[in-house]
Design brief:
The chain has 207 residues and is an all-alpha fold. The protein folds into two domains: 44 residues; 106 residues. Helices cover 66% and strands 0% of the residues. The chain is built from nine helices and no strands. The chain is elongated. This is DUF4129 domain-containing protein. Keywords: Membrane, Transmembrane, Transmembrane helix. It comes from Sphingomonas spermidinifaciens.
């Protein structure tokens, strides 16, 4: 069967009849198109100022760009990785003046009760437990005196080197940490002389 040939003039005539049919809507005469509003003067001024600024930077703009990228990356890393955030906070925070040592000492009655409790452990030959008791109570005291220094990610050795702790208190704490690590983690049992050294160091500081 031969293909039907459509005359272009017939198509044009059909299209003209459809367009002329008043029952079919092609336009929206009641909807006026808003004229393009001119750019506000303040926006023009802002654009010109930015253009002058970046033009003045010239070759330095690339350096500024990468500095901004590095800052954004640092913010994202610090936001999603708490250990990094803690390190940055410790690295860049303003160093607070060291507290008066007297403020870091436990009450005399509390210190004596702790020494009595630890002495009972030492009398039973549990020297590691006695020293560890002094260490754990000292960590509790540090948290009470300066909230925020004791965090899960920090070790006792980190606290022993913490500059926010007064030097004398830090020295006693470091001694307790050393003995505890040697007796419990290094499996080198502590003896009466070790306990005596820990007790006297704590007593000299706390009483």
């Amino acid at each position: 069967m031969p293909a039907t040939t459509i005359e272009p003039r017939a198509v044009d005539a059909a299209h003209a009849r459809v367009r002329a049919d008043p029952s079919i809507q092609f336009d929206f005469p009641w909807r006026a198109v808003d004229a393009r509003q001119p750019t506000p003067e303040w926006l023009r001024a802002l654009g010109a100022a930015l253009d002058r600024f970046f033009s003045a930077l010239g070759p330095f703009w690339q350096i500024v760009f990468w500095v901004l990228v590095a800052l954004i990356v640092a913010v994202l890393v610090a936001s999603f990785f708490p250990p990094v955030r803690d390190w940055l906070r410790d690295r860049f925070r303003r160093q607070r003046p060291a507290a008066v040592e007297a403020e870091w000492r436990p009450a005399p009655a509390t210190a004596r009760a702790l020494l009595d409790e630890a002495e009972a452990l030492a009398a039973a030959g549990r020297f590691e437990a006695a020293v560890q008791l002094l260490l754990h109570r000292s960590i509790e005291d540090i948290e009470r005196w300066r909230h925020g220094l004791v965090r899960p990610a920090r070790t006792s050795r980190d606290l022993a080197a913490e500059p926010a702790i007064p030097e004398r208190a830090r020295g006693v704490f470091a001694r307790l940490v050393e003995l505890t690590e040697r007796g419990i983690f290094a499996r080198r049992p502590l003896g009466p002389a070790d306990w005596d050294a820990a007790r006297e160091a704590y007593r000299a500081f706390a009483l």
